[in-house]
Amino acid sequence: MTELETLRHSCAHVLATAILKIWPEAQFAAGPPVENGFYYDLELPHRITPEDFARIEEEMKKEIKANNRFERIEVSREEAIAMAERGELAALGGRTEPSKFKLDIVQHIPDGEVITIYRNGQFTDLCAGPHVSHTGRIGAFKLTHLASAYYKGDERNPQLQRVYGTAFKNKTEMEAYFTMLEEAKKRDHRKIGREMELFCFDEDVGPGLPLWLPKGTVLVEELERLAKETEFAAGYQRVRTPHIARESMYKCSGHLPYYADSMFPPMEFSEEEGGDSVKYYLKAMNCPHHHKLFGAVQRSYRDLPLRLAEYGACYRYEQSGELFGLMRVRSMQMNDAHIYCTEDQFEQEFRAVNEMYLKYFKIFGIDKYVMRFSTHDPAKLGQKFVDQPELWKKTEDMVRNVLIRSGINYVEVPNEAAFYGPKIDVQVWSAIGREFTIATNQVDFAVPARFGLTYKDRDNTEKTPLCIHRAPLGTHERFIGFLIEHYAGNFPLWLAPEQVRVMTIGDEDPLVDAAKDLHAELRGLGIRAELDISSDKINGKIQRAEQAKVHTMLVIGKRDLEAGAVSVREHGKGNLGAKPRAEVVTALADAIKNRA
RNA sequence: GCCGACGUAGCACAGUGGUAGUGCAAUCGAUUCGUAAUCGAUAGGUCACGAGUUCGAAUCUCGUCGUCGGCUCCA
C-alpha cells in the first residue's frame, strides 16, 4: 500500500468513527482506499444524503484534531469472532448487536493469516492495516459522493450505502486535485459534444442511440477515410453486409443463447402476416456476416490471406445503467475487418495488424494506453475455452512474440481470452478517469470451423483458415468520444469540423467580395471553410471563432486587401501575421492532405 | 437491471405552495472596427411526461421516461 493509500484508508476509519458518533447503530462492511480516495460501505436505516456531509465532516475533524493514535493489536481468530459477536468491531463500544459483516469477513480469513484489529480513540475495527501513526496525519479530506453497492459486489447480498471521500497529505494537494477534476470536466466529451454540435441523443430515438450532427459526421467520415486509405494500402478489400440476420446464423456462430442477453430482442413475423415465423436479429457483431462472405466463394490457398473490411453497424442491448455518453452506446459502427489466413501466415499478419495500431496511435498522439493480452486458462479447456490446447499455445506464443519484438508494454491477463482464441485489448481512460477498451485484436481458430469455412490447399486438401478479428479504431462512437476528450475539442486541422473561417474587418463591399472569393477557392479545394462577413467588430468575430474551436482564422482587412495578403490566426496560437494569399491556401491544402 | 440524485428558454443556471426569471446564444436595427465579447430593441416556456393532494402546484405525493453517480478492488 502506498503512503497515500494508507492515509486514505485511515481516513475511512475516521469516517466510520464519525458516522458511529451520529448513528451508533451503523453496521460497517468494507472500507478500502480506491483510485482517488476511499469509501466505506455501511448498513443504516437512515438514508445518508449530501446534506449530512457537513455534520459527518464536523465529527471527522474532531477525530483528526484529537490526534488519536492508530493502535495495532494482533488477535486470535477466536478472539476476533468473539469481539464481532459482542458487537465490538467497527464500533465505538457499548453496542450489543453483533458486528455482522465483520463477523462474516473474519470467518472468511484464510487459516494461517495474522488477524489484526486497529484502534483509534474509541473506535475499534477489524483491519489488516497498515495505518498512519495517528489521526492527525490526515492533512486534508472531503466527502465526495454517495452510491450503493452490494455486499461483496454480489447482487444476491444486501445493498449497502457507500460513502465516498478523498484525502490528502495537505490542503494544497487536495485543492490541486479538485482543480484537476474541474479541468477534466471541461474536456468531458458529453459537454464538448453539445457545445460543438457534434452529436446528440433524443428520448424518442432511444437511450444509447447517438445521432451525429453535421460537424460530428465530419469526424466520422474523416476517420472512415483514414481507415479506408490505410486498409487499402495494406491489402484489405471492402465489403458490405445487412444489419440483420436470421436466428439460424447466430445458432451456427454459437452466439445464441450465450450472447442473447446483449442483443436486441428478435423481430418475428407471424404466419398470418405472410411471414414464415422466422426470427431476425439485429447484428451485435460483424464476424458471422463476414464468415458467410468467406464461404460464399470457392477459396484457394492462393486467395489467402483474405482481408475483409467493413465499417459495420452493430447493435447491442447494453444495460440501461451502463450507458455513458458516446463511450457506451447501443448502436455503433465498428472499424471491423476479418483476416483469413493459414497458420504459416498468422504471425506476419498479426504483426502487420499491430503495426497498423501503432501507426494510428502515432497519428493521434495517443501515448497513454495499456495493451491487455488475454490468454486462456488450461484448466478450463472445453468449458470456457475451445479444447484445442496446441493451437492455444501456438497462437499465444506468436502473439507474445509480436508484442515483445515490437517493444510494446503489455500486461498479460490469464483466463480473459475469448472462447475462440487469445486477444489484445487496448485500454485508455476517459477525461473523468473511467477505463475503456478502445480497440481490440482477436485471434479466432474455432468459429471458422463452425461455419465450415475451408480453402483448397496446395496438396488439394480442404483446410480451415485461422481468423484475425481486428478493430484498431474501435467503434466510431467510442473512438470519437475518446478523441474529443484527448484533444479537448481542439482537433488537428485535417479532422477539424470547421477547418477555416474567413472573416472581414468591417463589411464594406471590396472586403466582402475578397472574403467570398477566398472562401469559394477554399471550398473548391475541399477545405471545410465558413464565412463571417457580418458587421460585427473583429474582436467579436475572433471571440466567436475561438470559442467554436475553429482551427484557422483568415482575416481580411483593408491593409491585407491592398497587399494581396490574408492575416492568419490559429486557434490557441494567436495571430501569426499577414501572408500572401496563394501561399496560405497552398499551405492549408498540403497540411490537410498530409494529416499534419 | 439494482440503489440514489437530478430533469425550468438552444446552452448555463436562479426560483420550496400565490403573475416563470438572469446571463450567453437567436432575430431585428444601429455601429465600420486590425486579432478573445460594440450598443439597443425584440422574440423565446405544456417548468420531462401522466395522475393525485390543494381554493391554488415548477414547488408536495405516486407512477412513467430520460440523464448522471455507483454497483471490480475488500478485514
Task: Describe what this molecule looks like in 3D.
By secondary structure, this protein is α+β, with helices and mostly antiparallel strands. The chain has 4 domains: 3-184, 2-Layer Sandwich (Threonyl-tRNA Synthetase, Chain A, domain 2); 195-243 and 285-487, BirA Bifunctional Protein, domain 2 (2-Layer Sandwich), CATH 3.30.930.10; 246-282, no CATH class; 500-593, 3-Layer(aba) Sandwich (Rossmann fold), CATH 3.40.50.800. 35% of the residues lie in helices and 25% in strands. The chain is built from 17 helices and 28 strands. The strands form 7 sheets. The protein has an 8-stranded mixed β-sheet, with helices on both faces. α6 (189-195) packs across α13. The two termini are 44 Å apart. It binds one RNA strand of 75 nucleotides through β2, α4, β5, β7 and β8.
In short:
The protein is of the alpha+beta class and 596 residues long.
Q: Outline the biggest β-sheet.
A: 8 strands, mixed
Helix content range of the residues, please?
Answer: 25-40%
Name the poorly predicted regions: none
Rg, rounded, reads 30 Å
